[in-house]
Structure formats: C-alpha cells, structure tokens
Amino acid sequence: MPGSVTVRGQFQHSGSSSLYAAELVLDSDGQLSVHCHSSGEQLAQAAPADYRFGSVIPGLPVELRLRDGAVFVPDDSRYRWPQLSKGAAMAERLESHKMSILAAIVLSPLLLWWIIVDLMPMLAGAAVPWVPDSVKQQMGRQTFYSLQQTALAPTELPAAEQAMVRYHWQMALQQLQLEQQEYRLHLFKSDFFGANAFALPDGTVVMTDQLVSLLKDNPDAILAVLLHEIGHVEGQHSVRLIAQSLGATLVIGIVFGNPEGVADLLLGSGSVLLQNAFSRDMEREADQFAIAKLTELGKSPQAFADAMSALLAKHSDEADTTSSLLKYLSTHPDTRERIEQATQP
Amino acid sequence: MENNITTPAQPRVDKVAFSGKAGEFFGIWIVNLLLSIVTLGIYSAWAKVRTNQYFYGHTRIDQQPFRYLATPLQILKGRIIAVIIFGLFFVLSSLSPVFALLLALAFMFASPWLIVQSLKFNLRMTSYRNVRFAFHGDYLGALKYFVLLPLLSVFTLYLAMPWALKKIDHYLCSNISFGGKKLQINTDTSSYYIAALLAMAAMIGLGFVVAIAAFIIGMISAATFGSGFDGDAALGAVAVLLPIAMFAVYFVGFALSGAVYQSLIRNHLFERTELPGVAKFKSEMQVIPFMWLILTNLLAIIVTLGLAYPWAKIRKAAYMASVTTVAVYPGINSLVDEAQQNSNAFGEEAAGLFDVDVSLA
Question: Any bridge partners for residue A116, and if so which?
Fold first, then answer.
C-alpha cells in the first residue's frame, strides 16, 4: 500500500460548474479529503468505497470521481495515482509502448484478413445446414415471383429446343442421383438478363431463351451450364453468400466504427469488393462442380469451356475490358480463367 | 472591447483549443484495433469509450475540457442489441423481397425512436465543467422532422429540401440543453437555400471542368494514338483508367459540395445559436481550406492503406476547433444540474434495458 499522497488539482461539486483550485490528500488507509487551496475549507471527504479513478488515457489527467458525482482532476496531466490498479493502467501502457504498437500494426491487418477470408466463410459454411428448408423454399419462391413480375417473359423457343434442354436436365438429375422433386427447370425469354442462367436456393433453375439459342448446336454446353447452376443449389450458395456478407459487414462495422464522411464511402466500396470476391469464389466452386459432374456423366469438360467461349464471343467487348483491375469489380471470375480451368488436363 | 469593464456580463472570448496529438492517438487507435479484432469485436466498446474520452478530454473551451461519461458496458449492450437487430434485418430482407419491403417500412417508423434515443444518450454522456448536456426531443418530433419532412420534400422534387434541413437543424439544436438552459436558435431559411445552391453549383462547375479536361485529353490521345500507335492498348488503358478517374471525380465532387454546404451551414448555425447568459458561438469555416483538408485526409488514408486514419481524425478535430470561437459569460460559473446531483455517479442502479445508444458504430 502506498503512503499518503497530496495532489494539486481542480475540484467540482456534483452537477455544479463552480471550479475550486484544491488540494487532495489520500492517506495510507485510502481515506480521501479535498481542501480548497485558497480558503483551506474542506470541500469533500470520502472512504475508499466512495471514490473511483477515471480511465487512464495517454496525454490526459486521471480524474478521481466521488460517488455523489463530484470530481477532482489533477493539474498535472502526466500524474498517475499510485493507488491505480495494474489492470487500470494496462491499456495506457499498451497504447504508448513501441513494441505493442508495432505488434498491432503487423497483426491487425493479418488477423482481419484471416477473419474475413477464412473464418467468416468457414462459419458461414457451418451455419448453412442449420437454415431450415422452409426458409430456402420461401426465399426461392419470393425471388422467383418478383423476377417473373419484372424481368421474365414466357419462353418463345420452338418445342424441339425446349424438349432438348429438358432431356439433358432430366438425364443429369437422374444419373447424378439428385432428388427430382427438389429441382425445377424453367425457360424464360428475358431481355433484362440476356443470354444467362441462374439458380435460386429452393432448387429453381432458370435458363433464358437467349442462352439456349446461343448454345443449341452444342447440347453438352447446355448441360454444362445446367450443372453449374445445380452446383450453386447443391453448395447452398445463396444462403452462404448472405451469411458471409452479413459476417463481413458486421466485422467491418464494429471494428472500424463510424469513420466520418468520405472515408465511410471508401469502406462502403470495400465491402462491395469483398462481397464480389465472395461471389467469385462461389462461381468457381460451381464451375468445379460442373466440370467434375461432366466427367462423371462421361462428357468432356471441354463442353463447359465451349459454353464460356460462346458467352465470351457474345459479349466480345467485355473481353477487351476485363483488365486486371476491373476483375475486382466483377461478381464472376474472368471468363478466360474459367475456360482455362475447364480445359486443363 | 474598451469601456466595457464595468459591464457585469463581460464574456471571455477564445478559440476552442484542441491538444490531441496524432502520434499519441495512433498508438491508442492501432492497439485498440488489434484488441477489438482479437476479442471478436467485444473490446470495440472499450475502444470507443477510450477514443471519445481522448477527443473530449483534449477539446477545451475556456481551459476546461469536455468529458465523455459513458461506460464500455453501456456501449457493449447497445452494440449487442444493434447487432441482433441488424442481423435479423439483413437475413430477413435477403430471404424475400416482400419481407424487405415490410422491414424497410418498419425501419422508417422505428428510426426516429433510434435517433432520439441515440441523441439523448450521447448528450447525457457529454459533460462540461461537471454539468451534463441533455436532449429533450420526443418520438413524434423526430418522426415529423426526420421522416415526414424529407418525404414531403421528395414530392416537391427536392425543392423544399433545404427548408426541411433547416427545420431538422432547428429541431436538433432547440432541444439541446446544458445545465437546465436550452439552446436558442434563430436560423434563416434563405441561408439554407443559398448553401444548397452553392453546393450544387460547385458540383456542376466541377462537372464542366472535368468534361472539358476529358475532351482535351481525348483529343490529344486520339491525335497521338491515331497515327500508327497500338489502338487496342490505348483502349485497354482507357478502360482501366476510366473507372478510377470516375471514382476520383465522384469523391472530389462529393467532398467539394459537402465542404461548401457544411462550412456555410455551420457558420450560420453557430452565429445564430446561443446559450442565454452562458455562451455565444462563432464558426469561421472556409470552403477551400476545409475541402483541401478533407481531400488530403482521404488521400493520405488511401495511400497508407488506412494507417493515416488517426492522423486524419486528429487533423480534422484540430481544424474544427481552430475555426470555432466561444464567448463564455460569467453565468457559466454558477450552473447547477439538479437532476444529476441526486443520482449515483457510478451508474450502479439498474438502468432501463434501452438506456443505451443502439448503434454499431
């Protein structure tokens, strides 16, 4: 126990703006008394249970607060009460020690990276099986309904082409031993999506007329696209993407707080890039699924590359602009990278 | 100033002093960041309290600092509630578009409550000379000013927006009290319209400058690349540079119009606000220095991959203090806040569940 200390400072009664230049004495039993510096009048007196020290912050004096709301602030901002517990002074020591600052500079980005890139996807993957089927059904139905209202029109494909797509769909589901009733294929004409296909979490897969027309001479390529979409459903990618984005948004929000103005925008764009990165990972997963299942069905993975090449040729201007920078703005991996993956031996 | 010696209500006029140091705050920030990450966000409540204590404690009017009184546990409680609400919101609105719409509607009606709650909490946790601030707004007022007026002004094609912003500022300021005295505010609608128009003009002016510059660069590069250069490479370079340039223009435009509006409005607001018998305020922000500060801060943060954030924050706080003058009247010496004289300063009594700032930040 430290001996008696006397500290010069400023005293204020509870809820009162009057200032007193004062002297505080803490005796060895922890008994405290405050006297006005000019008049010598006693301003306050307290037992150890009735006062507390404020936070210890670098560069600021440590105030002493009384239970009734009075406060004493030492004049010397560097003064540290000898009665302060080790724990109370710990944060300041870390915040002003060169080694801990250096460690923080190195470790913070590494850990943050690890949390977002490894931990979050892992947790999201672990959480997905807990999402009830009814929720996924609901998600799929609702989204499908709104898309039908806004972006999808009835198919105008000739019956033969429709039958060809459906044949490959049935064949894939049967041979891969997937639950028939969990998957539904729909064909739609869509000017909004163009040549495209997408999957919803309840097993609804939509392929547009435009995509079928583009690939109609190469049925295996259509099969490859269907398998890619089935890969999204099997991997539960919609739910995982939601979980990962939520996790990353929360981590960034909590750790960085609320930076003002433009820095906020910057963080905002950061999370968009991050979401796109998550999305690209899942596209790659679905690609791998499609390629693996093509082999299983006795087809060549080249079919997947053909589908991608056809899309690439259709959006040929896209090919020119897919630079190293723009790929971070995309929700899908670079098409040529996807082709290469399928054509690798 | 002369001949006024006999007047009893002679104020002490001085600039707001800010003594925070970038190096010192860098240590606080980076160590708290690491501790927040390691504890999966839990320590962030302590980090927020320490950061606020640092900035409040280094901001002085008339040699007396502000104090931030919230405890980390209060902040933590608010964050846990916010995380749960945000998570539910996020998940439910991803589940179905109908849900999302309903939730957006629910949020519209809940947000005034959250705003009032947050203002009450944050002002009650701000103290100057051991006297706390307070916010007296209620749900209906906030609903009117934060939801209904902005909605209405959308229907006027935003023509009424500056007026709505004036009303919002008025609502905020006139409901703030210090030591039982309410702030008095008397702002002009015309000043808000002028600020909004100038902010727009700045944006449009920048647009013109950028368009002309882009045209000239386009002409020059067309002349250069047109004559036997690799046209494809040029196209590729443009494809890469264009988004970056657009991004930059967007940020500069945002900063510029923001700086114009903020400086004009803050100056006007401070001029027309007073705490009768206690304090008068003056703000002398200038558009160009302020915009320069915002842009260079942003640039520094980008270039250092975020490490300059503490420096930028300190620099902005120091600038804001340096353009702010407060005249303190002797009335400041005898303020008494009776409400807080009777309460336990250690906050040990059970506070209501929602005696928190429900906020992620």
Answer: none
